[in-house]
Amino acid sequence: MMYHLGLIGYPIKHSLSPWIHEQLLKEAMLPGDYRLFELSLERSFAEQLNHVKQQNLHGFNVTVPFKETIIPYLNGLSDEARAIGAVNTVVNQNERWIGYNTDGIGYLRALENQYPHVFMNKTCPILIIGAGGAARGIYYALLSNGFRHVDIANRTIEKAYAITELNTYNTRTDCITLEQAEKQLDKYTLIIQSTSVGMKPHNKVTPLHLNQIKPRTIVSDIVYQPIETLFLKEAEKKQALVHYGHAMLLYQAQAAFEIWTNQRVSIDNLDLKLQTRLEGN
Ligand code: ATR
Predict the structure, then answer these.
(1) Which of 100, 173, 238, 249 has its CA 20 to 30 A from that of 86?
(2) pTM confidence score
(3) What is the atom index within ligand 1 of the atom nearest the CA of 134?
(4) For this structure, is 187 an active site residue?
């Protein structure tokens, strides 16, 4: 069987997804292709989506700005996608289009691959910086995995509180400002930077400074361009264990590919290749 896959979004010309999924198809020894469907923001979303659905696709990814827009046009949602309110993966089940969200699980798989010891103690204090879509996905994944203490720091504190509606687990969550977070970073075992702050071409900014962290704190940044953000550079100077954003990108793709093909492909070979591609950019 040929796997016809794709991506909808705007703008997507520089997306790494075609390259990643073509590598996964190759690794899985499955024939197929991955096409870009760059939608126009001026034309009707419904009509453009109908056109995509007529392309004989097995499934497709969804990226900005359509992760929420697409929900009413689907026939079903996974628990995660429903809770998070955003879809990044759609599978075609006999012309029933079902939406999933693999961002949170992608983050957790990447973390577990590099730092499995975090999963031994689910009461360790965790801090998420940011309260956008990525933060929602990661917060949901951490809670459904049994983590018991996940604080959220955000520039706009109301948005942090809004995320805690996902907390049906009795997990402890304090919502704090970035300034408060900066002063108490030594509390945390794991700190996750989930905003786009520090992304190329704004390489010289960081959402907060890491002077207060303990050595061996795990510090994740979901930004992967540049691979080593200023935030991670600061972390490294403080003897933290750094966790790069491109790993999450690979694992969310692995999870999407698994939804489409039922095959979990190892991404061990892709990590270095992706780093090389990103550094070449
Ligand atoms: P995404 O869905 O990709 O996560 P988003 O929903 O736009 O993106 O969320 C962006 C996050 O980055 C928010 O937490 C935002 O903070 P606010 O809620 O206060 O807007 C945060 N963010 C963006 N620019 C920021 C900046 N310069 N400093 C601090 N936080 C910033």
Answers:
(1) 173
(2) 0.95
(3) 4
(4) no
